[in-house]
Amino acid sequence: MFATRSTVVAAFNDAAHARAAVAELRRAGFADGQIGWMGRDAGAEETIPLALTAWGLSPDEARHYEEHFRTGRSVVVVDAGDRAGEAHAIMHHHDPRDDSFAGIGIFGTDLPATPY
C-alpha cells in the first residue's frame, strides 16, 4: 500500500531551470501551495531537511536533496497528488541534474522513483 500523497522533487543546476519548471507547473494548473522552490537566494538553509520532510520525503531523501542544495543547485518540490506523472514530465522537460546520484524522484506513489 502506498501513501495517499505524491511528492515530486528535482534538483536543478541553476535557478533559471528551476524557475522555468515552476512557471510551467503553474501554467499546468498546479497551485502555488502545491509548489515549493528552494534556491540559494531563498535563505533559511538550516531548515532544508525539515522543509523537505514536511513535503513528504523521508529523512534520507531529504538529506539527498539537501546535498544538492548545499552544492548550489535549486530544488523544486511539488505536492502533485494524482498528477505526479504530469509534474514529473514537466520537471524532466526543464533539465534537472542528470547523473547517477540525482534527478527526479516521486515519493508516496507507485510510479518509479529512479533518478534520470
What this model shows, in words?
It is globular and about 30 Å long. Helix 1 (15-27) crosses helix 4 and helix 2 packs across helix 3 (59-70). It has helices at residues 15-27, 48-54, 59-70, 84-93; strands spanning 7-12, 35-38, 74-79, 104-107. With 116 residues, the protein is α+β, with helices and mostly antiparallel strands. It has a four-stranded antiparallel beta sheet, with helices on both faces. Residues 98-103 and 109-116 have low confidence and may be disordered.
Order of strands, main sheet, comes to 2-3-1-4
Shape: globular
CATH topology: Alpha-Beta Plaits
**Which structural class do the helices and strands define?**
alpha+beta
Could you give the topology of this structure?
Elements: E1 7-12, H1 15-27, E2 35-38, H2 48-54, H3 59-70, E3 74-79, H4 84-93, E4 104-107
Antiparallel strand pairs: 1-3, 1-4, 2-3
Helix pairs in contact: 1-4, 2-3
